[in-house]
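Quick review question:
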């Protein structure tokens, strides 16, 4: 067996093509406590190599030769759960505080669009006529069938079903850069009708800002922060029932909130509907978060490299 020379150090300037450890078909075996540092540049040609390196770094061998698994994802997951809590608290404050509430106009409109389109789809599948439809957050989102008639099943339930399903899917994708890249196309496509449905040019421009931001985030720091945008959009829909009910009770919107609509349609109290939807939102959201943690197990750096494997920026 041919004697292989030891790998050169990463800081060695003479390290280059032709040297051991250079190229794609090389296996480097290290004896602890030897450490080798790889610097991987974000070009598609080197990405595969870096993935392999990262996947192999799943355990370490101590001085006595015992294997020990490295849970390098722990701090990443902790960071993401923290981010989630900050999102929820932040959204609740900004949604309600006088003055800065207008900052949320565009994303409220977007969240109302996701919800109301569920009601509209419900009308279409049950062949009830659509009379009026608004996603204006200042009036409160609403979908009406023929005046004097009430929404029937499934139209009255589908708004909330859409909010929970869309929110859960976005939060799931928000745990991974590559998944967030795919999800961002759905979000971009949804911004277009949201912008188109605005009453005046000013509101249209207001709603074009977050679409512009989404496109911008793709090109800032290799789309590393795209997942926080997607996570934010997801949280908004996941907790739609909370914002919508708060809007009606704190700010007395012209259009009644979803749980009050359900109360008048089903003779079950709004509080019961509120708790039932909230529990369902939480259960679905928890499932999506656990699923994301189980599936996306890369380190922060591995996730970055994987993200660069599709439409690198
Ligand atoms: Zn509704």
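Suggested answer, residue by residue:
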């Amino acid at each position: 067996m041919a004697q292989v020379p030891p790998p050169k150090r990463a800081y060695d300037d003479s390290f280059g093509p032709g040297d051991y450890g250079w190229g794609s078909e090389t296996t480097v075996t290290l004896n602890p406590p030897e450490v080798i540092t790889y610097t991987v540049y974000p070009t598609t040609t080197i990405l595969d190599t870096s993935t392999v390196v990262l996947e192999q770094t799943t355990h370490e061998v101590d001085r006595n030769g015992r294997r020990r698994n490295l849970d390098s994802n722990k701090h990443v997951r902790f960071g993401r759960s923290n981010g989630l809590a900050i999102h929820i608290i932040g959204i609740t404050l900004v949604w309600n505080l006088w003055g800065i509430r207008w900052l949320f106009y565009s994303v409220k409109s977007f969240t109302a669009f996701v919800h109301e389109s569920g009601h509209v789809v419900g009308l279409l599948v049950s062949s009830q006529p659509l009379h009026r439809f608004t996603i204006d957050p200042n009036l409160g989102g609403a979908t009406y069938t023929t005046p004097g008639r009430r929404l029937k099943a499934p139209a009255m339930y589908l708004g909330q079903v859409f909010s929970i399903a869309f929110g859960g899917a976005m939060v799931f994708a928000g745990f991974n850069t590559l998944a967030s890249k795919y999800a961002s196309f759905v979000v971009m496509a949804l911004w277009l009708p949201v912008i188109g449905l605005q009453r005046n040019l000013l509101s249209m421009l207001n709603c074009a800002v977050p679409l512009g931001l989404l496109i911008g985030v793709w090109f800032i720091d290799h789309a590393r922060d795209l997942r926080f945008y997607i996570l934010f959009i997801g949280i908004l829909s996941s907790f739609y029932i909370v914002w919508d009910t708060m809007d009606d009770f704190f700010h007395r919107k012209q259009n009644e909130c979803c749980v009050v609509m359900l109360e008048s349609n089903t003779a079950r109290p709004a509080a019961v509907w509120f708790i039932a939807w909230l529990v369902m939102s939480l259960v679905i959201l928890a499932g999506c978060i656990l699923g994301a943690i189980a599936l996306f197990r890369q380190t922060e750096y591995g996730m970055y490299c994987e993200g660069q494997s599709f439409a690198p920026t």
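Why it works: Residues 40-56 have pLDDT under 50 and may be disordered. The first strand starts at residue 59 and ends at 61.
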